Amino acid sequence: MVNIQTLTITEGSIVMLADLLAFLLIFRIYLKNKRTSALLLSLAWLFDFLTVSSYAFQHLPLAGMFILLFSVFFLSGVIELIREENLSIKINSKMLLPLLSLLFAVYSLIPDYVFQQGLSKATVSLYVSHGLAAIVMSTAGYFMKELTYIYGRKARYLSILLVLFGLHLLPVPISIMLESETYPIIGSTISLVLILGLTFLTIKLTSSEEFLRLKTMEIHEVKIAPGVRIINQEEYKKIKEKLKDAPVLAFVRTLNNIPENWTYYFVTTATKEGEVKTISPMNLERMTELSYKYLKAMEEVGSRGIILIDTLVPIRSLEL
């Protein structure tokens, strides 16, 4: 038969190692590119490490404080990342507000039981902090989906796991109040799976090309007249060679010989998600959004941007 204490200690140790690894790797990324979102996310994982440590030593008030700090720093990191990417947070109040209201209503019924049972202030504090952390983490997951356009499946899966992690926090203080023997086994295993998934995806997102490219690359200035230019195929070959070391944003019809420094999107009607980033030729709103983000990022590093659009009609090269 499985020893509950041994299993819990083993899973807790794995979670602490994952937390520490995420903190160190993401903080290292922050030291390289100075993105505030990376700093906030790295500190979030440090606080989760402290949460598990507090549970291990039975310091429940500290565990409650650190889990709340973990959720707040993670939400702050997500919001800062959205700001850095020059995106706006779209809130569906018709769906979000009723769900939060229902969650508050159901969860607020538990304190009556708490006071009737005469449980300690530490348990009450743990209950409140986990409830708030659950709401904050679920909100972070809701906001994370706004980054799907840029980070693709990494942001989508991270969004889902954040919501699930938030929801899984709700039974934790209740199981402690009821002195459940079953939840420590199930709950710790669920926590382990969710934390491993969250740390993996957070590290993958912050170390992705999209997160690092414009902040870390060396900008190669090229002499090219500003404004809009319409060029033919031969001129395109020449300008492609001239711009091979420049951080160009390109919307292309073919994937042959794309310079390594370019950020490119394959223009196609078959916009299936894969290794190559694709965009529909009819999605002008998305092209405009990507172009604005790119030009803003180039401005922040003190350079002008070059946008190249390879269309079915002559190629257009735009330099702003």
What can you see in these coordinates?
It is a single chain. The chain has 320 residues and is α/β, with parallel strands linked by helices. It folds into two domains: 4-213; 218-319, no CATH class. It has 13 helices and six strands. The chain has helices at 4-33, 36-56, 60-84, 93-107, 110-117, 121-144, 148-151, 153-169, 171-177, 183-206, 209-216, 233-242, 284-300; strands at residues 227-231, 249-252, 263-267, 278-279, 306-309, 315-319. A six-stranded mixed sheet has the order 1-6-5-2-3-4. Strand 5 (306-309) and strand 6 (315-319) form a beta hairpin. Helix 1 (4-33) packs parallel to helix 10 and helix 6 packs antiparallel against helix 8 (153-169). The radius of gyration is 24 Å and the shape is elongated.
